[in-house]
């Protein structure tokens, strides 16, 4: 089991040379200096490496526990969370009006990469809080903002998202939780499942955001409203009052992320849980998507983070495990010297590098969409909308491959839990599922993003990619342009197929999302190549590895884009569901 090391130089390179975080300085009153950026990443690395990472294995083994209606997290988590809050990490990008530090969310993303790599289960708690903050900032009344945001931003209170019910998973139209008007609030009654960090002892209060139906609500998704339902009620002075009618019915026993309590939540089993409407009645989906978009970008970051952690462990093992001989058959060598192991390590590294570049390009674009005005903000928002399903979908699929390869590099030892690498594969498996399955991300990409503007934003992005690839003058430019041309064709195919027959068109969604991801990765790797100049013996190991990673991606990974493009061009017939009967 290896120690985690924050990939400081890789993150800085992505931020400065590809994502161009400096763009944000033109949009803020107080520019982010390079010294401050580096200082924040250095200090956050200490938190991740020294305080949070050591709890990853023990937390997985111990898990969370439900005792007498209260959830207790694994040992050390409460103290680590206190360090996280007291260090100001929770409030890094929070609104200064509510006690935040007002730094770009891209910087918080870079900090969160380390926390998520260090301990994925731990990191889920602040991730859900960020979603709650965003929903309240956009749609909450001033009273709700004044009551809850300062404590949420500081991390003293945490937040959750309560969407799923036993009969309402991806289909939110089936939600049955009820909200009944009562005096100046609502009484919430119903059950929610799969609620991440639904209860714990790490914060004084937990602010649940709950989807429910009003008595006169229309059927389907147009009749869903969003409510704040705190664990403890808050009086007019901001002090905590009595316990709300909210309880944990049970904890789920999961494949991975054992230290993250996944709760079955019961609202209003006695008298009704006190809740407060967020936004307008029956407009809960708008607020929910504010939470979900934040969470989806965060889950993509989790994919990168767990992949990085798995790669580090696999690399260390490969360098230490001695098996076989060199070509002379005289000297025994570590397995890192064997071609197939090098192939696996380079596959992992190149996919991680491409994923990281996409994460930070998308993060900067998201910040621009919020900080800029006019056409600049509009363009950035359109790009963010295109990137989000790929960040969540493609990168979390990459995480499955990378964590599986990490097990494979370990050989038989990878299948033994005590080695620790199996945990990464188990933890990563949830990523393509929660916060909207990857199938739903793909359908969102072609059904909303392409159809929504007749692929106008995608056409603009493709033109930018083509221009950048030409400008790079890379030896891989021709190969990348060939894949971009095919992607342009499949974009037209997907658009037309959705217009003609959305059922058949939806079959193209997943391969299109994957093709898009590999094309974006190639584009960004060429941008990275243009910023990496090897100068003979003076080149650092990081630069040499980066160049090798770019080479490997363009030679061995990029051809996957053509595979997925061919699947779309070949098309498919609708499958009669009756053939699955047994």
From TrEMBL:
Pfam families per UniProt: Acyl-CoA_dh_1 (PF00441), Acyl-CoA_dh_C (PF12806), Acyl-CoA_dh_M (PF02770), Acyl-CoA_dh_N (PF02771)
Cofactor requirements of the protein: FAD
Coiled-coil portions: none
Record's catalysed reaction(s): 3-(methylsulfanyl)propanoyl-CoA + oxidized [electron-transfer flavoprotein] + H(+) = 3-(methylsulfanyl)acryloyl-CoA + reduced [electron-transfer flavoprotein]
Residue span(s) of domain Acetyl-CoA dehydrogenase-like C-terminal: 462-574
Domain Acyl-CoA dehydrogenase/oxidase N-terminal: 70-156
Alphabetical list of Gene3D superfamilies matching this protein: Acyl-CoA dehydrogenase/oxidase, N-terminal domain (1.10.540.10), Butyryl-CoA Dehydrogenase, subunit A, domain 2 (2.40.110.10), Butyryl-CoA Dehydrogenase, subunit A, domain 3 (1.20.140.10)
Domain Acyl-CoA oxidase/dehydrogenase middle, chain residue ranges per copy: 161-267
Family that this chain belongs to: Belongs to the acyl-CoA dehydrogenase family.
Function field: Involved in the assimilation of dimethylsulphoniopropionate (DMSP), an important compound in the fixation of carbon in marine phytoplankton, by mediating the conversion of 3-(methylthio)propanoyl-CoA (MMPA-CoA) to 3-(methylthio)acryloyl-CoA (MTA-CoA).
Record-given protein name: 3-methylmercaptopropionyl-CoA dehydrogenase
Gene source species: Marinomonas mediterranea (strain ATCC 700492 / JCM 21426 / NBRC 103028 / MMB-1)
Lineage, opening ranks: Bacteria, Pseudomonadati, Pseudomonadota, Gammaproteobacteria, Oceanospirillales
